[in-house]
Specification:
Elements (H helix, E strand, L loop, with lengths): L4 H6 L8 E8 L5 E9 L1 H4 L12 E2 L2 H10 L7 H7 L9 E9 L23 E10 L2 E10 L5 H11 L3 H8 L7 H32 L7 H18 L2 H15 L8 H23 L5 H24 L3 E7 L3 E5 L3 E3 L2 E7 L8 E9 L1
Parallel strand pairs: 1-7
Antiparallel strand pairs: 1-2, 2-4, 3-4, 5-6, 6-11, 7-10, 8-11, 9-10
Helix pairs in contact: 5-7, 7-8, 7-9, 7-11, 8-10, 9-10, 10-11
Length: 367
């Protein structure tokens, strides 16, 4: 639910990095060939769909073909076991995957790399593509646009705000690799963050219930809405206690100092338990809400989409994107970062998507 937020504040734990390169050849007839290549740890490449694995995409080499055969459709909780079955570890040596596909026009380009039928597919990064072809006198003008849609990093914003509300001296000690916090300091930090976890859980609950009012018939009374939100907050408070956070923080601090301790394992288990508590509490509260079973299922589905989207947004934060486009004719303008040998290029990091969509645009002319 709130993967790595406490880690980032208390320990600055290292994370893997995926590098994705897209090469798009736009043809004069409006068709396009797209090649996708991604490099990273096996665990990172197996999660979040950094490369598309299903039809119409085809593997460009034998290693990618073997990967597709083994990893396509594997649920998140089975990734480690499936990687082990093909002799890989999630944190093993960097590998490279490469796929390609040809499309008759921009409208045929899938807007997500996750294959159709993937659970909660709408939670993954969306890329939309368009190509406008216009005749201007004796010339044909091509305008290519590719949008990488904004990601809502609400969890990161929430916990960052909570961290910034701590006394400045305590913030500095948390960020200092050499600092050893006192029992009183740990209790102060853990008390603040225990409340923040509850607030985040209640925010998730409100988001899941929102569809009843904006998409449904408003059948949920406000008193019942408050009851469900409060029940979910209580469930998370019962898991993410002050003492549990103190123990996790001390583990992280000792790991930072180089001691052989569980390190991030305790906080990861705690956050997984909190997520499970949200699911159970929501299901139990809905069961006594009087809502139709289909409405209850829709609310639970909405919760899962929000959880998956939060995890994926966190994973995208340190990814690096490089996009190259070759246009028909002569490039005359656009917002690209560089142009070379008839090809234009953009580069950006995944965390840029939490600040707004990235729109790539290039215009060429054929005469």
């Amino acid at each position: 639910m709130m993967r790595s937020i406490w880690l980032a504040v208390a320990a600055c734990a290292a994370a893997g990095c995926v590098e994705t390169e897209e090469r798009i050849d736009v043809r004069a007839d409006g068709s396009m060939r797209i090649r996708i290549e991604a490099k990273g740890d096996p665990g990172d490449l197996a999660d979040g769909h950094p490369v598309p694995l299903g039809e119409p995409w085809r593997a460009r080499d034998d290693a990618t073909a073997r990967w597709v055969g083994a990893m396509a459709g594997v649920p998140r909780d089975a990734i480690a076991a499936r990687l082990a079955s093909i002799g890989l570890r999630p944190d093993g040596d960097e590998i490279r995957l490469a796929v390609e596909a040809t499309f008759a026009d921009a409208a045929a380009v899938p807007d997500r790399f996750a294959p159709a039928g993937t659970p909660y597919r709408e939670s993954f990064l969306r890329r939309s593509t368009s190509l406008e072809v216009a005749r201007r006198g004796a010339r044909t003008v091509y305008t290519f646009t590719r949008d990488y849609h904004r990601r809502d990093a609400w969890i990161d914003r929430h916990f960052t705000r909570v961290f910034k509300d701590l006394p400045e001296a305590l913030q500095k000690r948390l960020e200092d690799d050499e600092a050893v916090l006192t029992d009183r300091e740990w209790r102060t930090v853990a008390t603040v963050f225990a409340g923040a976890y509850r607030e985040a859980a209640e925010h998730l609950a409100r988001g899941a219930l929102l569809g009843v009012y904006v998409d449904g018939d408003g059948a949920l009374p406000l008193a019942e809405h408050r009851r469900i939100v409060g029940r979910i907050g209580d469930a998370v408070s019962g898991v993410v206690t002050v003492d549990a956070l103190i123990d996790a923080g001390r583990d992280l601090q000792r790991r930072r100092g180089g001691d052989a301790v569980p390190g991030t394992a305790r906080i990861e288990r705690l956050e997984d338990d909190a997520t499970d508590a949200v699911r159970r509490a929501l299901a139990a509260a809905l069961a006594s809400s009087g809502l139709d079973a289909r409405v209850q299922n829709a609310i639970r589905y909405r919760l899962e989409v929000r959880l998956a989207a939060a995890d994926h947004t966190d994973d995208l934060g340190d990814e690096r994107f490089r996009v190259r486009v070759r246009m028909p004719g002569t490039v005359v303008g656009g917002n690209y970062h560089r142009a070379r040998d008839g090809e234009v290029e953009w580069r950006f990091k995944g965390d840029a998507l939490t600040r707004g969509a990235q729109r790539l645009r290039v215009v060429s002319v054929v005469e």
